[in-house]
Each structure stands twice: as C-alpha cells, then as structure tokens.
Amino acid sequence: MIPLKAIKAPLTVAAIALSLAAIDRAEAAEGSIYVAQSVDPATLDPMQNIAAQSLNVFQNVFEQLTRIGTDGSLEPLLAESWDVNDDATVWTFKLNTGSTFHNGEPVTADDIIYTYETIINNPGAPAAGYLKAVDKVEKIDDTTIRFTLNQPYAIFGRQVSLIFIVPKKAYEEMGPEAFSTKPIGSGPFKVEEWVKDDHITLTANEDYWKGAPKVAEVQFIPMPSEPARAAALASGEIDIVPLLPPPLVDSLSSQSGIKIDKVESNRVVFAGYVPDDGPLGNEKIRKAIDYSIDRKAITERLLRGLGNPIGQIAPPVTFGYDPSVEPTPYDPEKAKALLAEAGYDGTPIKYMFPTNRWAFATQSAQAIAGYMQQAGINVEMEPMDYAAYLPMWINNTLEGMYMFSLGISILDADLILGLEYESEKSHGYWFSDELDALAKEQRATADQEKRQAAISKIWQISNEKALFSPIYVEVQAYGVRDCVTAWEPRADERLNFAEAAATCEH
C-alpha cells in the first residue's frame, strides 16, 4: 500500500479513495483456485438449473435478494432491507443502490421482476417450485419490489436466496441459448470461458460493488472419479476437492501440502418407517429399533468422525433445531425389553436403503442392521441404486424401514416438516391433525420464537412416538492445498470464493 504522505500532487478525497481502491484491487487479484467437481453443469442459466454443482458456479457469478450466512442466518444482498406483514403474506424488499451487473448496468427492480416472472410463467423451470406461494410481484419504484403470496409463508425471505437475478436487457438481447454459455451476473466473478466437460473459468470482477475478490481466477473442473479427484489434489493439479469420503480423508491427511477442512453439514441421515408394514405399526417395536442403534460407534468408528449423533431431522445449523432434543441413547437391553412387551414374534422387517446417496451409505446401513439383529430383530436388507430409490421415496412407495438423507439448502426446518410430517405434501408416512396444525402454525407467523416453539413440539411428538430414527448429521470433509490461504467450507455445501485468498499457480 502506498502511504498517503507519498502522494505529492493535491488530490480530492474522492480521488484519493478511488486511487487507493484501484491499488487494493491490483494487489488483491492474484493467484488461482482450481476446484474439482463430480459433474459439469448442464447450463449456466440459473433460471434453468438448480443442480448442486451448478449452484457452486452460480454462487460466485450471480446474486440473490438475500443470502444465507455461514452461521445459517438470513442476510441482505441485493436487497438492503425487507419488511413482512404479521401473517407473512406480503414481503417488501428495498434494493441497495450500488449493485451493478458485469456489463456495468445497475441492478434494478425491473431485473428482479423479470427474473421472477420468467420463472413463475414457466412451470417447467427447475426453480419454479420455489415460487409456488407467489401470487403477484409488483414494482413499487426503481428500488422497491413487493411480493404478495397466496398463503402465509414465514420462510419466503430464505426462499428468495435460491433465485439468482439476471439482467433483463442483456438476457433478452442475447437470448437464452447464448446467455446459458456466457452469462452476465452481478457477483464477484465473471464467466471468462466454458469448455464443456473440461472446465469453467471465472475471473475476478474488479468492479464488484462489495469490493473486488482477492483471487484472480477460479476454475471448476469436472472429474467423476473420487480417486481421480484425490490424485489431482495430491499432485497439485487441483486445489480444492469437496465432500471427501472417510478413506480418502485418511490417505490425504498424511500428505504434505494438504489440509483437511471439516464442517458439520446441513444433511441428516435418518431411518423412516412405513406403519402399514407388519411390526412397524407397533410403537414399541419402532422404539426398540431406535434404542438398538449405537450412533456414537457409527459416527466415531465407521465414519471416522465424519458424522455426529443427532436426535432430530434438522441439523444444528438449521433454524428449528432444538438442542434439548437429544439423540436416543444406545440401550440394547431396553430394546429387548420393548420387543418383549410388544410381543414381537420374529417377523422379518424389510430394510430398504440407497447404496450411493451419501458417503458410506451401505456400510452405515449394514451397521444399523447388525445392531437390530443383536437386539433380536430379524432384518431383510434391500439395497437399491439411488436412481431407482428416489422415485419410490417421492411417490411414497417404499416399504418397511427405509433410510434417507435430507440436506436443507435454505437452512430452515420448514422444508423438513413439509417433506416428512405434513399430510398435504409429505413424502413421509406419519400424519395427524396435531402435526399438520403445528406445521401450519409455524409457517403462518413471522415471529421466530413462536415458530421455534411449534417446531420443537413436532420433534418431541416425533420422538415420543418413534416416527423416525434420526441417526447422524454428516460432517463434510474438504481437501484443500496449503496455497489456498483463506477459504472456509460452508454447512450448506456451497462453494463461495468472494472472500477467498490464494497463492496457487497453474
């Protein structure tokens, strides 16, 4: 940094500020970060793609009205503030006046409305499901937008964090096809180049309205093979490899120049029960299964620390998590006593699970089955490929006991309640008027304390009746080369490089 006393020519305060900002940008934009992902995006149009690996690119190129902070809190982004009425049906967002797109055009209310209406008017758009509650979007003035919803929706402020804003004028002039390969956003990085199935190169947006990134270049490289990604990290070809499984964590952690960064994730692995299938309609048998599982041993020995026992489907980083709802303790004797009280006659329990949904899915399922058998429960294991398993979960056609994993991108338990506990839209199997009323109650108020109370009551009912058996929250491991000097993984698995720093060279 050049000291102020070295500047001899008379300058205005504004000129000095601009000069120093330019120097900061010049000093900051250095190094590169190469990231390996399992797949390449299908398109770079955020209105047509919501795949996880694609969101890692979008997170750095585009922006939303709001964003989820690293601690799970809701933060302003393109919107500097917002208001919501008492029943959470009218949301008014006030835009900041300093944000600009990569082409220099300001971000306005027209761009916000264009993005939302394009998605809403195309029911087949992947992101359309996020906006089903929107009845009307209105421009109040150039920096104010009002959303009127068709139902109370307390998490709408979080829901808009999933919608990336595109520039209306540029999108219409370029057309969807051209925009999908060289998009324009307002984020900290610009798309420099996309060579399909080879790499996406992002370069620092030196005019970024929140301050230029410190990293000059970020490149996303598709590598389907986990061992290939690990080898590329070890050789220095790659600087960050997300979501490492336990064996690769062990092999990479001992190599010089590599660190393993871990973060408790937004994803919970749990067992569910189909009540119509024989013994599982009996609450005592479900509780026996719950007590038979040694969660501590699974997370510490099998997963090698890449998991923490949990007592609810909501992970700690999620709003709605209640620390007083603890994991069910391992008590095989109590499990056996409950089976005796239930009159369990040895009828086998079908146990369905996907083999390739999360790290060590098969091994953890086998461990759970082993604990059940030790308690005296006969188990028929039915492993399935996730591609076949997911439609059965969606259509509620699973049988017996089943395993699943939910990751909540907006870090709010409301999504979990809808998916597993609410009769109108659930992929679960346990419904009641009480659960429905509690789910609707927390959704219909902007009062967070009231929301938490209703959600906590759902967890308590769920555990009292053993509707589910939460097993563990995943801890995600990232292999990172030492040349990445500033960057932290996030619980929601998003890769954000706005504040990263690196000395890596490629």
Verbal overview:
It is a single chain. Strand 4 and strand 5 form a beta hairpin. Helices cover 31% and strands 24% of the residues. The protein has 16 helices and 19 strands. Strands 11, 12, 13, 14, 15, 16 and 17 form a seven-stranded mixed beta sheet that branches. The protein has a four-stranded mixed beta sheet with strand order 1-10-9-8. The protein has 506 residues and is of the alpha+beta class. Among the domains are: 123 residues, Dipeptide-binding Protein, domain 1 (Alpha-Beta Complex), CATH 3.90.76; 212 residues, Dipeptide-binding Protein, domain 3 (Roll).
Write the topology of this structure.
Blueprint: H1 13-28, E1 30-37, H2 52-61, E2 66-68, E3 74-76, E4 79-84, E5 90-95, H3 109-120, E6 134-141, E7 144-149, H4 156-159, H5 168-174, H6 176-179, E8 189-195, E9 199-204, E10 215-222, H7 226-235, E11 240-241, H8 246-253, E12 258-273, H9 283-292, H10 295-302, E13 307-309, H11 332-342, E14 349-354, H12 361-374, E15 379-384, H13 386-394, E16 401-407, H14 414-420, H15 433-443, H16 448-464, E17 468-481, E18 484-486, E19 501-502
Parallel strand pairs: 1-10, 14-15, 14-16
Antiparallel strand pairs: 2-3, 4-5, 5-7, 6-7, 8-9, 9-10, 11-17, 12-16, 12-17, 13-17, 18-19
Main location: periplasm
Organism: Acuticoccus sediminis
Domain Solute-binding protein family: 74-415
